[in-house]
Amino acid sequence: MSKKLVIVESPSKAKTIQKYLGDDYIIESSYGHVRDLPKKDISIDVSNNFEPNYVVSDDKKEVVKKLKKLAKEVDEVLLATDEDREGEAISWHLCEILGLDAKTAKRITYTEVTKDAILKALNNPRKLNMGLVNAQQARRVLDRIVGYELSPVLWKKVKPSLSAGRVQSVAVRIIVEREREITNFDSNSFFKVSALFDVEDKQGRRTVLKAELPKRLANEAEAMQLLEECKNSNFTIGNIEKKPSQKNPAAPFITSTLQQEANRKLGFPVGKTMSVAQKLYEAGHITYMRTDSVSLSQTAVNAAVNEITSSYGEEYVKVRKYSTKAKDAQEAHEAIRPTNFGEQEAGANFDEQRLYDLIWKRSIASQMSSAKIERTIVSVEISESSERLQAKGEVLVFDGFLKVYLEGKDEEDDDDDVSGMLPPLAVGQDLDLQEITGTERFTKPSARYTEASLVKKLEELGIGRPSTYAPTISTIQKRGYVEKTNRDGVERKYTVLKLSSNSIVSNQDTEVTGAEKMKLFPTDIGSVVNDFLMEHFSEIMEYDFTAQMEHSFDKIEEGETEWSAMVSKFYKPFHESVEDTIENADRASGERILGKDPKSGHTLLVRVGRYGPMAQIGAPDEVEKPQYAKLLPTQSIETITAEEAIALFILPRVVGEFEDEEVKAAIGRFGPYLLHKKKFVSITKDSELDPYTIQLPDAIRLIEEKRVADANKFIMEFEEEGIQVLNGRWGPYIRKEKKNFKIPKEVEAEKLTLPEVLDIIKNQPAKRGKSKAKAKK
DNA sequence: CAGTGAGCGAGCTTCCGCTTGACTT
């Protein structure tokens, strides 16, 4: 019997396929790409047709060794990597390292991991598609050139260790531009009018009908005028309009929509969604989670139909085919769905269970009938005004897919005020007015991005791939271009006019506006780098740069263009502008001159310095030694005012004297602190105190609290050995010569003896030392 | 652990897209 080796990309997939095939087949996994350009330098021979220097990555040496050995033992190797550009390239690299002839090697593909699909694929092997492989090489080489030529420009002109790239730099641009849009937004106020009427419901009970003025009124005077007219008006039902409508379910999940929905409904950051989904995938509960295809296999549709029929009834079934919107989608996999629809619950922990539940519901709902809704719009006439009010009602006639699942929204529309069922009403009916209010509202700028809504935007622009959304978002945060933070809102007053019992009262109310939770904000360094790249490398920063590139890749795939010719066409002008920029561009610091310091008369400016954003008094030509102060975490060089900048120089500030020594307040690397007798005391955020305004009594209290905490810190001490057992933030730990050691959970710290302590120190596992270990080499 | 911001120079940093583990301060 002849043996065959089938190579796929993912080990979980290998396991599944092994179940479908007999002992004649050995299914192994390549764990993704097996060769790549080394990290240390650009590794492309520009003068030799951009020849890439591919090497087997360190973490793939073992895999490659195993595959080589197996390839020798079998009669045939089948390349079953994903059916997309990257998958085709992996197969080609496998040929290269396994010594297979790329012209004759057997390539098999399938877009769903079902037994039928796999067997069909095995019977229809094809040859390697070198067009796809070459398009991938162009993609790889181009990304390397952009990343490895642009980043060093930033090291020279902005700050070391920064990075730029086709995907990440555009992601940062999106965030920077949105922030500026918000900063420059002029909020206008307007008035919304709504009325409450007393009416009888079906059972004859008094109930409330809410009606609104469909349009906005420009100002208080207009609102007041309408209310005045209403004072002496009668209100009657003018018209009742009923409109049947229907709602359709959303398509099954792909990576980007899963990330968005898990963020909206479960509050997961995108990286968490991916790692939880990975666990579900490895346990065999769901199909592959990195996909851009909304299609379901026939097997899956049948299973969903069975489940819907038995759980909800036949009238809830509607088989639907979804097509993928993104035009650059590669559709190498199915949509993300449960592998077994009969399994309503799965997952090893709460997070996995919740994510599985979401996937199960979304997939099931995608094959369910539409919800039927009857919308009613009732107009209310005002006898003394030409305006009309409107009441909207919605009745669910048939729930359909809503029985299971409704997609979440990114922003609540407060305009969309649909209340459920309306009471019975008749045309010409008179209405009893309870009250009418005119409420001042404000126009809002576009919302800041969350991780998930940024993924949505990137996907719309065709930038990035399912496997890179989460890593990209983490990269731009790691580089310090973007921060995910909360922001407190500010109070805002608004006017409410209320007409009731025939008199109009005007009141001021306050609301909190602009509060943000887990939103992406650009940092100053992010803005400075963005502006620099926009000025000197606008082509790469264009939102459609990737789309244009994809267009060229299509031509390579079709064999119209050589991949190196395409890269060359891009490289020449790009490299020239890199050299020109290095030669001629000024350093970028985002410097803004805010005016003069009133005390010294010297220039007051803000800029990004070596340690981040700072304010400075005195330009280099004015004074020998300028004064510097770091900006607060909430401030930015783009929006800080001169007053705020001057206030930064108040620190360090002497609060007063305590026990014959000065108490100083300042802000350091770890936030605000007090300094007294050479001891640091943090001014914690929750204490509502800050170093600018803190007074002596509060300062003394903090110092004394710290003394108590320090006193409780010591559990025991072995002075001769220089060992202490201390209470820390994460529980008790051992300290020796400035090194900390973890105490195993099961050990009671209070009862430790010296030999036990020494034992813990000796057996402490090495710290995670990836970077350190490498540095030593 | 907390205060820095001159200037020099060595050595380092960096991309995107496929995959999983090995780590948790």
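The first strand of chain A starts at residue 4 and ends at 8.
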